[in-house]
Amino acid sequence: MKKIFFALLACALISCAGSRRDSAPRSRMIGFIGTDVLRIESTGTHSGTGTIDSRKREARERAVVFAKQYCMEIYSGNAMSNGSGYHPSSVQRFMRIVENGSVVSESYDGEGRCVLVYEIRSRNLREMLHGAVSTP
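and the corresponding structure tokens:
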């Protein structure tokens, strides 16, 4: 009984040690525009070193990476929830769509965070992601 208790305690401590201090999500879905465009809002921060311009550039790059990662998580969730699994050709196709996305707007706050809107476009994108996201 003691072994089980200590094993559960160790798991709880390990999971807490890896959690981030800020609980705010790094990315969220804004929504679809028609059937071909999806917009994601993402936040990135800098490491605190370098010039003001380099910190802004680093925060922007991180926000873009988080937005792309979130898009892939949406796609992964769709593939898993539909039970279709991953097909290498469809995954590569979606990765190209995400990589070809663009930053529509960006802003910076006093703490050096970059908040941007990332947009991906593809014909029938909503159908491709159907079931992975709840749309208004």
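(Above: one complete record from the training split.) The radius of gyration is 18 Å.
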